[in-house]
Design a protein that fits this description.
The complex is a heterodimer of chains A (115) and B (113).
Chain A (H helix, E strand, L loop, with lengths): L2 E4 L3 E5 L4 E3 L1 E4 L5 E7 L5 E7 L5 E3 L5 E5 L4 E6 L8 E11 L2 E6 L3 E6 L1
Parallel strand pairs in A: 2-12
Antiparallel strand pairs in A: 1-4, 3-9, 5-6, 5-10, 7-8, 8-9, 10-11, 10-12
Chain B lengths: L4 E3 L2 E4 L5 E6 L6 E8 L3 E9 L2 E5 L6 E5 L5 E5 L8 E8 L8 E2 L3 E5 L1
The chains are: A mainly beta (115), B mainly beta (113).
């Protein structure tokens, strides 16, 4: 992917409300798609991934994402968020590029869940 | 716990110095990836090693180098350090040379003063 764009740098939401974190990428080849979560002072943890098959992918902690090839998007959703979901979320795309098979990350979206 | 171990957790050093960051991948994983995370650049892919050989290269400066040893642990060497090299450096490991699921360590926070 030449770029991965996470359209919102911050998303505040109330507890138990639904949330969507948006991710778009630019690529002309087949890609693998990922969402990672980073809690403060920790490494990244894989939430879910799309490699092939069904475009609706379910992950851990009640998150899901839908791959839309025509819109080159991979938006992350959760129907009801908890305070503990407050973290930074990264969309990532893996593809063959000059220099090898690379994973490119978006700039991140900070999800802030309010009581 | 991802199973990926990075040492040290924190490192403070002066400009012009050289440091080595270490990464032990998950048991059985052959690929090691290095990333740099900073506020202005975000998460940048530096380099990947697979089973001891360099496999993919990203935005790695010439002052930086890495290697993967026969026991599969990896080291990232940063030399002639500049203030702008201050960042969180992550290592991730994966079973194969193609990233279908990478597991991240907790990172090494490098501060250059």
């Amino acid at each position: 992917a030449q770029s991965v764009t996470q359209l919102d740098s911050q998303v505040p939401v109330f507890e138990e409300a639904p949330v969507e974190l948006r991710c778009n990428y630019s690529s002309s080849v087949s890609v693998y798609l990922f969402w990672y979560v980073q809690y403060p002072n920790q490494g990244l943890q894989l939430l879910l991934k799309y490699l092939s098959g069904s475009t609706l992918v379910k992950g851990i902690n009640g998150f899901e994402a839908e791959f839309n090839k025509s819109q080159t998007s991979f938006h992350l959703r959760k129907p009801s968020v908890h305070i503990s979901d407050t973290a930074e979320y990264f969309c990532a795309v893996s593809e063959w590029d000059t220099g090898g098979f690379k994973t490119i990350f978006g700039a991140g979206t900070r999800l802030f869940v309010k009581a | 716990d991802s199973g990926v171990t990075q040492t040290p957790k924190h490192l403070i050093t002066a400009t012009g110095q050289r440091v080595t960051l270490r990464c032990s991948p998950r048991s059985g994983d052959l690929s090691v990836y290095w990333y740099q995370q900073s506020l202005d650049q975000g998460l940048q892919f530096l380099i990947q090693y697979y089973n001891g050989e360099e496999r993919a290269k990203g935005n790695i400066l010439e002052r930086f180098s890495a290697q993967q040893f026969p026991d599969l642990h990896s080291e990232l060497n940063l030399s002639s350090l500049e203030l702008g090299d201050s960042a969180l450096y992550f290592c991730a490991s994966a079973p194969r040379h193609i990233n279908t699921e990478a597991f991240f360590g907790q990172g090494t926070r490098l501060t250059v003063v």
